[in-house]
Amino acid sequence: MKAFAVSALVLASISIGGAQANDPVALAAKVQQRYNGIKDIQGDFVQTYEGGVLRTKTTERGSVSIKRPGKMRFTYTKPEKKEFVSDGNRLYAHMIADKQVIVSPAPGPDQGDIPAMFLAGQSDLARDYTPSFTPLPGAAAGLVTLKLVPKKSNADYESIGIGVDPKTLQIQFLTAVDTQGGRSSFSFTNLKENQGLSDKQFEFRIPRGVDVVTNGGRNQ
Known about the structure:
The protein has 3 helices and 13 strands, in the order αββββββααβββββββ. By secondary structure, the protein is mainly β. It has a 13-stranded mixed β-sheet.
């Protein structure tokens, strides 16, 4: 699930100025304020992960749909097809090539520092994190970058980060560093907000013939 190491998404029509330019807390609050007005999000992503014992690097591509609160669908298309879907109650990880589906409870608001769930409106940038202006590896030039350290310690993640367009306050880059030094990052493009996504888009039907793993137990 560390593939979901990421953060939030926002659109505004103003530039970063005044105290926000020098105050990471003020900027985080402004981004959160704009994000609170977004009901759903769609877009494309490129995800990279660097870490592990061999310090390997992987790159994957796909599309994402998110609806607040708690619903999301990450569809990976290259190089391997797979899906991560949350209907708000359960989280499904569908490994298509392995013919396996892992079913677990969807993270709740007390687990909002899991970046993918932050995208789904499960935490607050200004309330739940300590922000600082910090360069983030992999962020595109021109983005304003914030490192966000969870105020409540997390067993899996040390910090997350966002890259914000200074003119629109749209978050176009999300990253997270796990406790073993691995870094998972998403770059987003073709972002659209408030498209009126249906709840049915976040329903998941387990395909026939797959191996189903539920809460550590295995079913066929």
